[in-house]
TrEMBL record:
InterPro entries: NAGPA. It comes from Acididesulfobacillus acetoxydans. The keyword Membrane applies. This is Exopolysaccharide biosynthesis protein. One of its GO terms (molecular function) is hydrolase activity, acting on glycosyl bonds. Keywords: Glycosidase, Hydrolase, Membrane, Transmembrane, Transmembrane helix. The chain crosses the membrane at residues 12-33.
Length: 324
């Protein structure tokens, strides 16, 4: 007689759980010490330039990380400026135009705003406590669209976006200052004439330059007064990117590039991002906070593909586009 084997749900779940834990423990060893060099280069390059570089440091020495990062950077070197565009949405009444873009290793979104004075800087309502999502910024302000903007300090790697970097200005008023009287390396602002200003600045200089909206991020600057300034690949690796630029007629350009998603978009180098702005005839442009913060919202919905596991990361500041 054949003996019946009784199915045990508890035993099955224990088996599945064991295999998940075993795979999780084995995966880092395969990635960091296995024979798959391409996988190692992409993984180390992405994590080392993310907000959790300590994950890589637990397995590799700094010398090994530096060597792999150089190889990672070289994967994205591209001096060509060709970008494939695809129209997504044009609403003459809103003054906003959106296009899909695609380069050799990335996909993303471009938003064109004809009136630069409609672009406003926004900041979390709970500085020092918690950041906010871009969709929340857009909803709270009654805006039509928005992107993430400035950097933020991240104590203990919690990533809650509560401490904006440097200086933040809204409606001509300094609403946050973590720099005191010191000169901030890179302020990205819009002055009373609607001109995009990218420059080192102190809190006292904000008034003299008539800055109405501003955030802080170290950049790098991509285009200055019509001149491309990125050398090589830009030295910031391949990652999801957010940037802001402006054309000679005043049109503001938002760019958000997806990344860290093999099969969809690896991400962009500094040169890639600069090339996108050159394609749109920007005379000034700068890299904003990227990585898992990179996000574009239109009519209340996230229209790119953020790489954060929770889709929307909590950030400290953003740029929103107000209705006419």
């Amino acid at each position: 007689m054949k003996r019946r084997v009784r199915f045990s749900g508890k035993r099955f779940m224990s088996f599945v759980g064991f295999n998940i834990v075993f795979a999780a423990l084995l995966a880092p060893l395969i990635v960091f010490y296995g024979p798959f060099q391409a996988l190692k280069v992409m993984t180390v390059g992405s994590i080392a330039l993310s907000r959790h570089p300590q994950v890589v440091r637990a397995f590799l020495s700094q010398a090994q990380i530096d060597e792999i990062t150089r190889e990672y950077d070289s994967l994205g070197v591209n001096t060509q400026s060709h970008v494939v565009r695809e129209q997504v949405a044009t609403d003459p009444n809103s003054g906003i135009e959106i296009q899909n873009i695609q380069g050799h290793s990335f996909k993303g979104k471009v938003m064109l705003i004809k009136d630069p004075k409609r672009v406003k800087a926004v900041m979390t309502n709970q500085p020092g406590v918690a950041g906010e999502r871009i969709t929340s910024f857009v909803k709270q302000t009654g805006a039509l669209a928005g992107i993430n903007a400035g950097g933020f300090n991240d104590p203990n790697g919690k990533g809650n976006g509560s401490f904006p970097e440097g200086l933040t200005v809204h409606d001509g008023k300094l609403v946050y200052n973590s720099a005191g009287k010191a000169v901030v390396h890179q302020v990205i602002g819009i002055d009373s004439q609607g001109k995009l200003i990218i420059a080192p600045m102190s809190a006292d200089e904000l008034v003299a330059k008539h800055i109405q909206e501003a955030v802080t991020f170290y950049g790098p600057t991509l285009i200055k007064n019509g001149t491309p300034v990125i050398e090589g690949d830009g030295g910031i690796g391949i990652a999801p990117r957010t940037g802001i630029g402006q054309t000679a007629d005043g049109t503001i350009i938002f760019v958000v590039i997806d990344g860290r998603e093999p099969g969809w978009s690896w991400g962009a180098t500094g040169r890639d991002l600069m090339n996108v702005f050159l394609e749109y005839h920007a005379i000034n442009a700068v890299n904003l906070d990227g990585g898992s913060s990179a996000e574009m919202v239109y009519q209340g919905k996230v229209i790119n593909r953020p790489c954060d596991i929770f889709q929307e990361r909590y950030v400290a500041t953003g740029f929103v586009v107000m209705p006419k």
